[in-house]
Amino acid sequence: MSFSKGINASAATLTKLRTGDSKCPFSGMCVTCLDGCPGLCEIGKSSIRGKETLYPQPFGKITAAAEKEYPVDYSHFNIAGTAVGARGVAADPEVATFPAVNIESAAGANSEIPLRLPIVIAGMGSTNVAADNWDHLAAGAAISGVGIVIGENVVGMDPKSEIKNGRVVKSPNLEKRIKVFQDWSNGKGFIAVQANVEDTKLGVQEYALDKLGVDIVELKWGQGAKDIGGEVKLSTLERAQQLYGRGYIVLPNPEDQEVQKSFKAGAFAEFERHSRIGMVTEDGFHARVAELRNAGAKFVFLKTGAYRAADLARAVKFASDAKIDLLTIDGAGGGTGMSPWRMMNEWGIPTLYIQALTTKYLDRLAAKGAFVPKVAIAGGFTLEDHMFKGIAMSAPYVKAIGMARSPLTAAMVGKNVGEAIKAGKVPNEYKKYGDNLEQIFIYTSELKKQLGKDFAKLPVGAIGVYTYFERLAQGLRQLMCGARKFGLEFITRDDIFALTKEGAEVTGIKYIMDHDAEEADRIIG
Predict the structure, then answer these.
(1) Exposure pattern of 412-444 as b/e (b: 16+ CB <10 Å)?
(2) Are 255 and 331 contained in the same domain?
(3) Using CA atoms, how far apart are residues 226 and 230, in angstroms rounded to an integer?
(4) Is the distance from CB of 48 to CB of 222 less than 8 angstroms?
(5) Looking at the structure, do residues 501 and 407 belong to the same domain, yes or no?
(6) CA geometry: angle at 410 spanning 404 and 416, to 5°?
(7) What is the span of the domain harbouring residue 43?
């Protein structure tokens, strides 16, 4: 089995090997390193551009995810169908059809936050790729009835933010992001505001609660792609100095006279802005939850990254004690393209493993009668079979699947194709369907009926998000119908089986040859 050892060249870092696939398995270097090569690989490029090569490229314009192959993943499991009965509807072929499957879900300690689809778009923060596509993504989330979280550093990165005595009093960017969702909301789904160390210092969540009509906030303990704070590149000295003045780590120091001379001379073209790491303590966590509730938060979420197992246990226990309304657990390997590339591949607990641990810890809480928080699992989920497996793996605790890269892709593609159609330049791939929105985007007519005259104002990428989610919805209903489960609450761990013994050992899901063994013996007699 390959573990993608020695990644010394990748499309993510715009690097390659002179010898192609012929490489040393551990170092990743070409089998023969030639004196005379201009330096095509990461080592060579690092000798010229240094720390720039830490990050996926082109920085800020892409999303990226790890190339590493883990020993066990969700492909090691299959969904168990059955020809018998139905759960949630009458066992009648005229009734038990896949369109009858109910895939609505809910977040909130008492299920007060309805979700039309069991999807949460995880924290989309200050990255360029998220900011450039926000209107399309947020409007798409709203009309689809799913959750979306505004990620970290949006206020700190907003050039027009007004900050007095270290606290934000106005942020046009945050205000706009929230308003886009609220303008298109149909009463299902939610928008939440996340906060990291800098956001907390700036009072971002208090500002959103008090001034912007938000009632859901999310505490953040990192993400699945990295175990440090976020990074952003800054192309002007003025911008670097502004963010340095707001308390961010900016490298090199934009206030240093020699650095300023080097930048103006063209020695380097970008500054790096970094966030600080959080310091989790039990008392501090509970104090912050209380502060947010006192500030008007109706619901408080927690998102934790792919930290070691003890930190996952802390997240589960603290969320239980504080009666957190949604605990999002993000497995290693993904991100919106700002994470150091090697870190993205080599740091953290992969999604399947962290979900297996989560199930174990939640089972222990449930066994002693403690409050069990609702969970969203994230980290590489993109299609309906992934969703089914993610829900089944930790049934009955998972109420939503966290996604980021795939809905962002849907927004970007929908935006680009939609704008091309409106400009009369239909992409060749879609000319066979027609030459207008109704012919090319399959749900356009449905959305026009739902939205009426407001459809004309809908950001065109939102059609792409809605259409993508409708594909996931129908695919999930079909898989659930095949398992004879007509509501998410009826899915159990027994609805999937492990194809490998190692998969069974890691997760506790039954191995395929042992699945249904007792019932089969009873039937055979």
Answers:
(1) bbbbebbeebeeeebeeeeeeeeeebeebbebb
(2) no
(3) 8
(4) no
(5) yes
(6) 130
(7) 11-54
Same domain for 261 and 349: no
The strand pair at 249-251 and 299-304 is best described as unpaired
DSSP β-ladder status, 496-498 and 190-195? unpaired
Chain center to CA of 81: 29
pLDDT per residue rounded down to tens, the chain (525 residues):
455 556 788 888 889 999 887 888 888 899 999 999 999 999 999 999 888 888 888 877 788 888 888 999 999 999 999 999 999 999 999 999 999 999 999 999 999 999 999 999 998 887 778 888 999 999 999 999 999 999 999 999 999 999 999 999 999 999 999 999 999 999 999 999 999 999 999 999 999 999 999 999 999 998 887 888 778 889 999 999 999 999 899 999 999 999 999 999 999 999 999 989 889 999 999 999 999 999 999 999 999 999 999 999 999 999 999 999 999 999 998 666 678 888 888 999 999 999 999 999 999 999 999 999 999 999 999 999 999 999 999 999 999 999 999 999 999 999 999 999 999 999 999 999 999 999 999 999 999 999 999 999 999 999 999 999 999 999 999 999 999 999 999 999 999 999 999 999 999 999 999 999 999 999 999
Residues 104 and 43 in one domain: no
Indicate the SS3 state at residue 291: helix
Q: How many domains, in total, are found in the chain?
A: 3
Total residue count of the chain as it appears in this document: 525
Q: Are residues 411 and 519 in the same domain?
A: yes
Do 83 and 217 fall within a single domain? yes
300 plus 345 within the same structural domain: yes
Q: Is 139 among the domain residues? A: yes
Nearest one of 434, 415, 319, 337 to 373, comparing CA atoms: 319
**Is 2 inside a domain boundary?**
no
- The verdict on 119 and 197 lying in the same domain is yes
5 in a domain, yes or no?
Answer: no
Identify the CA nearest to 56 among candidates 121, 7, 23.
7
* Contacts of residue 299, Cβ cutoff 8 Å, sequence gap at least 6: 107, 108, 109, 112, 113, 190, 192, 215, 216, 217, 325, 326
Dihedral of CA atoms 86, 91, 97, 102 in degrees, nearest 10, equals: -50
Query: Residue 96: CA atoms inside 13 Å, Cβ hemisphere, count?
Result: 19
